[in-house]
Write a structure and sequence with these properties.
Bound molecules: S-adenosylmethionine
Number of domains: 1
Structural class: alpha/beta
Strand content: 15-25%
Largest sheet: 8 strands, mixed
Shape: globular
Order of helices and strands: HEEHHHEHEHEHEHEHEEHHE
Number of helices: 11
CATH architecture: 3-Layer(aba) Sandwich
Strand order of the largest sheet: 5-4-1-6-7-9-8-10
C-alpha cells in the first residue's frame, strides 16, 4: 500500500468528513447510554502540517486553513475550528498539527464510551497508539478494518457509529469491499450509524454504489451528502461524499446549516455545489 494520509491531512475532504463526524458523535452524546465508535481505517491520529508530506502537497491550505482564516462562521464550523486550534495551533495561531478522526472522536468520548480503532500499516498504528497516550477507552487494532467489522461487531455498547474511511487506492473495487463488509456488519449491528466516505472522480463509479445502498442494505435509512467541485474527470478529486446509514434524527437539516457555507469557503474561485439527499427512507 502506498497511501499515506499525511499528504492529505486537513484538505477539503478531511474538513467535510470531520465536521460531519463531530455532528454524528454529538448526536450519540445526546443520550446517556454509552456508545462505541468504530473507525475501520483510523490513520495515525495526528498529522504534522510542517512536515515534508503536508508541505509538499499543501492541501491543508485549501482546506482547514481556509476555515480557520474565515471571520464569520456558523456555530458548527466555529466549533470545528476551535477544536482544530486546540489540537495544533502555536502561540501565534499558526496551525502546526491536524487531528485525524480517532483523536477528534476521543475528545467526545465520555467515561463509559469506547473506541475501536483499526489501522493496517504498522507505523501508522504505532503512531496512533502513541498519540492516544494509553487512553483505556480506546483500543487500537493493527488489522484489516473490513475483517474487523466481522470479528468485533457488535460491541458491548448497544449504540454507536462506524466510520469507514478507506484510501480508495483500489478505486471502484473499494466499493465492492465496502459492500462485502457492510452486509455482515449490518446483520450483526443493525441499529448502529454507518458513515462511509468516498471520493468523487467520475460520477459513473459512484452511481452503482448508491443504487446498491438504496436497495440492498436491509432496513437502514440512507442519507447521502456530497461536496462537489465542477468537472467530471478521473484525473483529480472532484469532490467527496459521505453515505450515512441510520443517520440521527434531522441530520439532513443539520447538514444544511453549515455545508453550503463550507462549500463557499473552500470554493477557491470555482463554483462548488453540495448535495444532501435521501437514497432510501
Ligand atoms: C483516509 S486514511 C484515514 C484517515 C482517518 N480516518 C481520518 O479521518 O483522520 C486511510 C487509512 O487507512 C489505512 N488502511 C488502508 N487499508 C486498510 C485496511 N484494509 N484496514 C485498516 N486500515 C487500512 C491506511 O494506512 C490509512 O492510514
Amino acid at each position: 500500500m502506498n497511501y499515506r494520509h499525511a499528504f492529505h491531512a486537513g484538505n477539503f475532504a478531511d474538513v467535510f468528513k470531520h465536521v460531519a463526524l463531530l455532528g454524528l458523535l454529538d448526536a450519540l452524546r445526546a443520550k446517556p447510554a454509552p456508545f462505541c465508535y468504530v473507525d475501520t481505517h483510523a490513520g495515525r491520529g495526528i498529522y504534522d502540517l510542517r512536515g515534508d508530506s503536508a508541505q509538499r502537497t499543501g492541501e491543508f491550505r485549501d482546506g482547514v486553513a481556509r476555515v480557520l482564516q474565515a471571520g464569520d462562521l456558523p456555530p458548527t464550523l466555529a466549533d470545528y475550528a476551535q477544536r482544530i486550534r486546540a489540537f495544533g495551533a502555536d502561540a501565534d495561531g499558526d496551525l502546526m498539527r491536524y487531528p485525524g478522526s480517532p483523536l477528534l472522536a476521543r475528545d467526545l468520548l465520555r467515561a463509559d464510551d469506547r473506541a475501536i480503532l483499526c489501522e493496517l500499516q504498522d507505523e501508522e498504528a504505532a503512531a496512533l497508539r502513541a498519540a492516544l497516550h494509553g487512553d483505556a477507552r480506546c483500543a487500537v487494532h493493527e488489522r484489516d478494518g473490513y475483517a474487523a467489522l466481522k470479528a468485533l461487531l457488535p460491541p458491548a455498547q448497544k449504540r454507536g457509529l462506524v466510520l469507514i474511511d478507506p484510501p480508495f487506492e483500489a478505486q471502484g473495487a473499494e466499493f465492492e469491499a465496502i459492500a462485502q463488509a457492510l452486509t455482515p456488519a449490518l446483520a450483526r449491528w443493525p441499529n448502529a450509524i454507518y458513515a462511509i466516505w468516498y471520493p468523487i472522480k467520475l460520477r459513473e463509479t459512484i452511481t452503482p454504489f448508491h443504487r446498491w445502498l438504496g436497495s440492498e442494505v436491509g432496513k437502514a435509512d440512507v442519507l447521502v451528502t456530497e461536496l462537489l467541485h465542477p468537472g467530471n474527470t478521473p484525473l483529480r478529486l472532484n469532490g467527496c461524499g459521505l453515505a450515512i446509514l441510520n443517520p440521527p434524527w434531522q441530520f439532513d437539516t443539520w447538514l444544511a446549516t453549515w455545508l453550503p457555507n463550507l462549500a463557499r469557503l473552500l470554493a477557491a474561485g470555482s463554483d462548488p455545489t453540495t448535495r444532501i439527499e435521501w437514497v432510501r427512507r
